Amino acid sequence: MILPPIPTPFDREGRLDTEAFRELAEALEPLVDGLLIYGSNGEGVHLTPEERARGLRALKPRKPFLVGLMEETVPQAERALLEAQEAGAMALLATPPRYYHASLGEGLVAYYKALAERMPIFLYHVPQNTKVDLPLSAVETLAQHPRITGIKDSSGDLTRLAFYQAHLRDDFRVFTGHAPTFLGALALGAEGGILAAANLAPRAYRSLLEAFRTGRLSEAQALQKRLFPLGNLLSRGGVPLLKQAMRHLGLPAGYPRPPYPQESPIWKEFRPVLEALKEEGWLL
Amino acid sequence: MILPPIPTPFDREGRLDTEAFRELAEALEPLVDGLLIYGSNGEGVHLTPEERARGLRALKPRKPFLVGLMEETVPQAERALLEAQEAGAMALLATPPRYYHASLGEGLVAYYKALAERMPIFLYHVPQNTKVDLPLSAVETLAQHPRITGIKDSSGDLTRLAFYQAHLRDDFRVFTGHAPTFLGALALGAEGGILAAANLAPRAYRSLLEAFRTGRLSEAQALQKRLFPLGNLLSRGGVPLLKQAMRHLGLPAGYPRPPYPQESPIWKEFRPVLEALKEEGWLL
Amino acid sequence: MILPPIPTPFDREGRLDTEAFRELAEALEPLVDGLLIYGSNGEGVHLTPEERARGLRALKPRKPFLVGLMEETVPQAERALLEAQEAGAMALLATPPRYYHASLGEGLVAYYKALAERMPIFLYHVPQNTKVDLPLSAVETLAQHPRITGIKDSSGDLTRLAFYQAHLRDDFRVFTGHAPTFLGALALGAEGGILAAANLAPRAYRSLLEAFRTGRLSEAQALQKRLFPLGNLLSRGGVPLLKQAMRHLGLPAGYPRPPYPQESPIWKEFRPVLEALKEEGWLL
Amino acid sequence: MILPPIPTPFDREGRLDTEAFRELAEALEPLVDGLLIYGSNGEGVHLTPEERARGLRALKPRKPFLVGLMEETVPQAERALLEAQEAGAMALLATPPRYYHASLGEGLVAYYKALAERMPIFLYHVPQNTKVDLPLSAVETLAQHPRITGIKDSSGDLTRLAFYQAHLRDDFRVFTGHAPTFLGALALGAEGGILAAANLAPRAYRSLLEAFRTGRLSEAQALQKRLFPLGNLLSRGGVPLLKQAMRHLGLPAGYPRPPYPQESPIWKEFRPVLEALKEEGWLL
């Protein structure tokens, strides 16, 4: 499965644009296997609770979708949990509490168990953003819970994926969120990718996955090599670069919320990479 | 000036207890020079916007107070900014945006300037919690803004304080938030402390500050040495330990919000330190 | 190619045992494609220049071998360079200067170019030990030098391998030194492994490599999964664990040099992993 | 006490210049309380054992001196230990083993105890260079050994100094190696400084120390503030900058050993700082 973490569009003044949001989701959905809403590139942490609810209501996904949650405590998570459930999300993708992480201790496992009382949960390890660890020992414990059914690991630390492959139950679902090492992650057991780059080149990543799954390894390697610069620059440029690139392709992705920059400092480096892939027919 | 960052009381189920909050503030205020509300130990990030407003309205501080803000974007900050202003805060103490910090760039300076359009701002550097840097070059730029009037630096990195002393304008106000190095910070130009430990031993930290300011250096050193274990263990134990210690002293500090643990794993190590200081008359 | 970084045997008092060294090399060599001497697990940094020369002279490898070098300056490297050349090493595997790395600057590239004046050089990136970076930009520059012909990358950071695959010339030789992600590294273009674990299970790693190269992907994945605990624990346990395991298998690997511990604290966890693999016939 | 860690002069081709070394020591010694040879700025790790011995024999210090040692194992340390003892060093200043630090464990304490069998030892914590920790718990243990008599702490982490002040025996000698926080370190109990900057401005640092010790705190603060840029830039520039500045002042400090750069990239920023201090009479 390839899922893009769709961006949440704001206008130039920072207002949430729910119409653009719906259009964007509708443009992407036919090209992929599902969506991640409010994920690593979805600026969920940039929304007030009201905006968050309003945005989610504006979307009518037909394919399976995940909803991201980056909260700090159980009581704060409750509203978003309810709303994700009502919207019909296949699971909630939740990061660990962050701000007081150093004194969280056993609370880390307790947090996920509390969330899982309500609905299926995917663990979300994205230390570039959260700056906290999700220890392998905690993943191992949590993966035994019947409603904790998967993980998105965006760390790019493939030792973690090798650990999941070797130590977790076979039906625990592993997705990588790190495009630059995508083929490596597949070799180490990931079932698919939830990749910012899949907002730009959904077909290409689906082709790579398909080549790998059908044993056409040198084709998969050629695609991995071809797509590396796209994923690698996007990792560096983050949301401002992703939105700029999507706008460049005519998609209603909007702007990052202020004070985040509206133009990426590496757009000049990224643009030729993007255009070359476009010419070869890899972009949406 | 010595200001405690007062904790925000929750009951055992995680509900905000505004009455306890007011009592706590009233108990502490006479012993200190002012308060920090929703700061490093105030769990501001553990409140919904409504709760945050409700808690602030419950307090009626008579001494100067700061209000902490740990938001991600300008639009999200607006409500809290307005409420702090209405409540009469002397300044808003604001951390940098965190989640997408890697792509913030010039947005860091833009963020603080946007906040400062409304009211006086203190910069807040507390990387243990935010996990992001507030670069010295940005501090140097921002300290030139007429409404950015001070900084609380909780990093314990005293090279930063030495930098402020050497390179910032004389009336830029520097507070340390790091008790274990308090006397070092004073020697390097800090005017006072905003210290979790001042929730427990306000008199002791005021005595230390007074000894330093009046040139009684060996007395200041003796107090620094005496108080080191208190501040050092509290740095390690964080909010769960602070609240447990305050409850132990009979203060209505309540519990950390779930899933944070209600008892600290280092309470056993901390308790004798606390009780010895209590016997010597240093606690409130 | 699978090469083990053979350990350098010391007796219990810390004396270099050249006879054991030669025996060990002779026991391993037939099972692998070559050797790395004084590499990541070879304690080259634990030898005086005289001992280093004496050890190398004691060996008579018949297969291709690399010699590791962890020096700080060009003049200090000269003797070892000469000795490796005389011994017939296929290349010198050199880490960057470490101690004053922060002020090395352009000296990093200059260092490798100076070494390459004499003989073929492999870059050696092993930040767990060196604690310094070998920036991708430097690798890209150095890979254009005709006598800098390969790299051993032990970091386990597979983004680096994906970068090599996408950006370096096709005949630049890439070896991983990180067993836990071995199959991921192969998928991302590594030609083989220089793995501590290949001192224990040379046949198993050669089988994994062979399965991958001949397109038997699910067999390769099964082996990767099977071998993960071996490589992963060995990464954590380092030289003391490797030597203890080799002694346990009857190999003359000796002891780490004092003050390094003679027994590993994770031997108890490692032993059953080792014995299970032994029963299945995977060890040498 | 103020001691400079004197640089070891190499000529432009990287040859050790023992005559310059002796001249340099003789020029500095009258202005300070003693010397550190082969310390943080002495490039001890850039010498072969023979050169190291030759350099040490060339010096005839009259004041107390320390000799630095950055070895990896006990057997490798033995020769340098003997030579330091014969030369009459007041103590050996030794960093922890580095390369396999992750598997050192109890060996850390064992290492220092083995060294202390021969002569007085100072612990040396300089993580900028060694990239390893010297845990406070190990310092606490080692400070009880009768021949482990002091520490040089160059980390700039003043929580450590506060810990030493609060938890170690009163006669354990603490020196800071971090000029930018010098006055903070004194307030937290350091008895003096072993400072690269004291190679350039020995009188200034002695004046600062004297002002502090005689209770002239605002004078000490003024000097701290005045000297901050010198120490701070020197921390960033390291050996290449120190040597360039000393050459600029006419001292026979020579050049860093290749491949280290002969000119510092921040010399242009440093030079006006240096010259302003020179005009005010603070340099040697």
Automatic annotation (TrEMBL), chains A, B, C, D:
The keyword Lyase applies. It comes from the Bacteria. The active site is at 124 (proton donor/acceptor), 152 (schiff-base intermediate with substrate). It holds the Pfam family DHDPS. Keywords: Lyase, Schiff base. Pyruvate binds at residue 194. One of its GO terms (molecular function) is 4-hydroxy-tetrahydrodipicolinate synthase activity. GO terms for biological process: small molecule metabolic process. The keyword Membrane does not apply. Belongs to the DapA family. This is Dihydrodipicolinate synthase family protein. It comes from Thermus scotoductus.
